[in-house]
Every structure is written in C-alpha cells, then in structure tokens.
Design a protein that fits this description.
19% of the residues are buried. The N and C termini lie far apart (45 Å). By secondary structure, this protein is an all-alpha fold. 74% of the residues lie in helices and 0% in strands. The chain folds into two domains: 2-31 and 67-149, no CATH class; 35-62, no CATH class. α4 packs across α5.
Length: 154
C-alpha cells in the first residue's frame, strides 16, 4: 500500500509539473493580432512549409487570436498543475487536468502523428491522469453517480 502511495505522489508531481510548464509557456509571448495570419497570406509570405504545419499553426493561431482562450488554457493548466503538485488537492487537480490532457493527446495524435516521441509522451500523461482518477474512484463516484436522485418514493 505504501508503494502505491509513492507511485501516486510521483504521478501527481509528473503530471503537475508538465501542466505548470505548459501553462507558463502560454504567457511567454504576446498574442498575435487577429489578422496577422491573413496579412501574411495577402502579402504572399510563406505561412508554413507544409500542410501539416499549416494545420497546427491555424489551430494554435485560432486560440491565440481570440485574445482570451490561449491565456484561459494557460490559466487552467497552471491551476491543474498547482492542485496536483500540492498533493492535498491532487484529486481535484486530476479532474481539472483530464480534459486538458485529452486535448493535448488528440492534438498530437491528429496534427502531429509523425512525432512519435511526443505522441508517446502525451499518451503517458493521459494514462497517468486516468490512473490518478481511477485510484480515487470510490471518493469521487458519489459526485457523478447518485441513485437516490432517481428513486421516487410515495
């Protein structure tokens, strides 16, 4: 049982550290103007060397040009990372991190399938996230599934 706790702590620190790192990177550069990519196309500048890279740039650019979603995603990653690294709130951190890790994994699966190393790394993070949630299933199950709400007594 002690070994399981140690593995859970290690998983929380790994996933939390990656969330913190990813969240901090979102605030590193200023967001581009909403028309930056369009202006590059109009002036016939090369936007991307290949169709795959263009898809990635369009995806990330779409989030950045809203002027809020890229920062919101960074904030969500920072929040999940802090909750996970704190260990006290790691269960809620794993819940907050799940949609983020799913999105990151799917991003790499569909937009960067040739980057096998990154895909395996993101799959590992997703599995860690799922294992953290599975290890506390008995605790959070009543929040999701409550039979008493569907029982009608006369």
């Amino acid at each position: 049982m002690k070994a399981v706790k140690i593995v859970q702590i290690i998983f929380c620190l790994i996933l939390g550290g990656m969330m913190l790192y990813g969240g901090m990177k979102k605030f590193g550069k200023p967001s581009p103007s909403p028309t930056e990519l369009i202006e590059q196309v109009k002036t016939e500048q090369e936007v991307a060397p290949s169709l795959e890279i263009l898809k990635i740039k369009n995806y990330v650019f779409g989030m950045k040009q809203t002027n809020f979603f890229w920062q919101f995603l960074g904030f969500a990653e920072l929040l999940a990372g802090l909750l996970l690294v704190s260990l006290v709130f790691s269960r809620i951190g794993a819940i907050v991190a799940l949609p983020i890790t799913i999105n990151i994994f799917l991003f790499h699966l569909f937009l960067e399938p040739d980057e096998v190393g990154e895909l395996v790394q993101m799959l590992g993070l997703l599995i860690i996230n799922i294992l953290l949630l599975a290890s506390s299933y008995k605790i959070w199950k009543p929040l999701v599934y409550d039979k008493t709400l569907i029982q009608f007594k006369v």
